[in-house]
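Hello,

Our lab assistant flagged a job as stuck in the queue for most of the afternoon. It eventually completed. Since we weren't sure the result was trustworthy after the delay, we are filing this so someone can double-check. Below is the sequence as submitted and the structure that was eventually returned. Let us know if re-running is recommended.
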Amino acid sequence: MTDAEAPKMLKLGPTTCYFVQCPGGYLQIDTSFPVMFDRYLEGLKTLNIDVSEIKYLLLTHYHDDHSGFAAALKEKSGCQLIVAEKSLEPLRNGTLIKINRYLNRRVQLTLTLYSKLKRRTFSFEPIIPDDRDLIVRREGREVLGQIGIDGKILFTPGHTPDSISLVLADGSAFVGDVSSNFLNFCSTHYRPILLYSPDQVYESWRKIVDEGARSIYPAHGKPFRVDRLIRFGKKFAPKKIDPASKTTA
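-- returned structure --
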């Protein structure tokens, strides 16, 4: 993965925000915890991005480490939101609906300790989309085409029911938490650290691979090549991920 291929990115605590150029500015993918907003504004300066250049904000799902300061950013920048229809209710509630289970016991212990140390509240300022915002009701290129980006939005549940991913024409895939490169000492192997449905995770991986992804940009951890997703998908999935034939066996 070369520098020429990499998008701009900003790490805020455990979450990485990505910035994809679009006409007139940037599409930003995800935010971080609410307390990270001031650090975010400082971080934009290091990327030579003015907050007014954030034209769109895509939230891959509703969790507080992704949607935390979305309301504040929308107010300050005037950006338009891009969110899945399934995200609307939890975003309006401004809290994490605890329907997930931990990947394994080590992950559970680590995250529990982290949440206590950081006094994580699992809540954020409610986000209420307006008429300018773009609600993703079906997969495809329609929404991204409206903002001048060549790519496709996919429904990729498994970490949460509302998770979406973005795969660009160049093979860059921004996957939120449906895959991660994080807490590797806990034997995560690119899997989400929290699961809503393991089977749906691997179906989502298969969809991302079949869409032509080459570079995976997770919200947690460093980017990696898609071959690792394929390799560990074959290891853990009940059905093999086979990008050559695009079939399951």
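-- support follow-up --
The delay was a queue issue, not a problem with the job. The result is valid. The chain has a mean pLDDT of 91. The helical segments are 37-46, 64-67, 70-77, 88-93, 105-117, 142-146, 198-210, 226-236.
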